[in-house]
Write a structure and sequence with these properties.
Elements: E1 14-16, E2 21-23, H1 28-60, E3 66-69, E4 74-77, H2 82-92, H3 94-122, H4 127-141, H5 151-160, H6 162-170
Antiparallel strand pairs: 1-2, 3-4
Helix pairs in contact: 1-3, 2-3, 5-6
């Protein structure tokens, strides 16, 4: 029977849907290894797609082709017209180009998430704690709420949720 999220995990960081497990004290290093390996694989896949496309373009001599430039009124190498090269790549290498772009975007997102996780670890906190601290700061900027608004609003928060507490605090 699977455990529900946020249960039985020491120093809970977050529940990860990709590994379908809660990340905490005993598996954070494995989660970081998961992020690093996926980052490396996505970056490698993007590089392979880019190298394969550019190598084939060179082998076929596509970059040595001259096209007529209407503004200049003369022939120019297609390599000086990136839009033309991209058009050619989209038509003849669409799947490989899409796979390369997808993997490049995934690598960038993974790099950002890995950097965030490393900064959270360096700060000695967890993703869950950081989110709660941001929530608390937002509540304080709005002028309190919850326990800060008094016993009545605190009871409303506990029983009905934070939206009801904000309404009670304004009343």
């Amino acid at each position: 029977m699977p455990r529900p999220g946020r249960s039985c995990v020491a120093r809970l960081d977050h529940h990860c849907g990709w590994i379908n497990a809660c990340v905490g004290l005993h598996n954070t290093r494995h989660f970081l290894a998961f992020l690093v390996s996926n980052l490396v694989l996505c970056a490698y896949a993007a590089a392979v797609c880019c190298a394969a496309i550019s190598g084939d373009l060179r082998r076929r001599g596509v970059l040595d082709i001259y096209v007529f430039d209407r503004q200049l009124g003369r022939l120019v190498p297609v390599a000086q017209r990136p839009a033309r090269v991209l058009e050619y790549v989209a038509v003849f290498y669409g799947v490989a180009a899409a796979a390369g772009m997808f993997n490049a975007v995934c690598a960038l997102l993974l790099a950002g998430f890995l950097a965030y996780q490393l900064s959270i670890i360096a700060a000695g906190t967890t993703t869950y704690e950081a989110a709660k601290l941001r929530e608390l700061a937002a509540v304080r900027r709005r002028g309190g709420g919850g326990a800060d608004a008094g016993v009545g609003a605190g009871a409303v928060t506990a029983l009905a949720g934070s939206g009801a507490a904000a309404a009670a605090a304004r009343a």
